[in-house]
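Because discrete structure vocabularies remain unfamiliar, it helps to consider an illustrative case, giving the amino acid sequence and backbone structure tokens:
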Amino acid sequence: MPINLLPVWLVLTLSVTVAFADTELLAEAAIRKAEILEQVVAPDVEVSELVEPLSEHEAQLIDPEGSDPLVEPLTCLARTIYWEAKGVPGRDMESVANVVINRVTDENFPNTICDVVTQGYKQSPCQFSWWCNGRPNEVVENDAYEVSREVARLALNGELPDYTDGALYFHDRTVHPYWANVFLLTAETDAFLFYRPK
């Protein structure tokens, strides 16, 4: 490398390294914020600090490719919305998010989004079919995942109205599970029916 290009190369390398480190720190801070927002809705978790709502930019820093492990709230919720309702028009995505958040707030379910989503994986029945269908869980359609992540962000921020009227369960219109007759139908979307205990 010519001597006169060495300083330019060093500056560019350092700039990229600093930018990457800053992005990682911002992503970690966004994850921490999402975890606190999740605790706000959990009934048996005391929140020791308050945070501002998660911004669109912060949400985009978390799991940008849709391939991270499911270990933090935004990714668990966004992937659930994505795999349960991607490509479905209307309120379907928002209503799936409502069910997950409603379960976190209900003391009969786990108090974290990831635990709600993966409930039943080790001991049947699985609560969300996408998690237990044996297929890869990584995102394959980035545009649909962007929409899912935005819905998840709004839900975590408490900015998403509950279109399901407190539903804890839902199913696709093409099936009729045994439990559908036991619960109260609370809402319908183009693709799903939503229920809660009577």
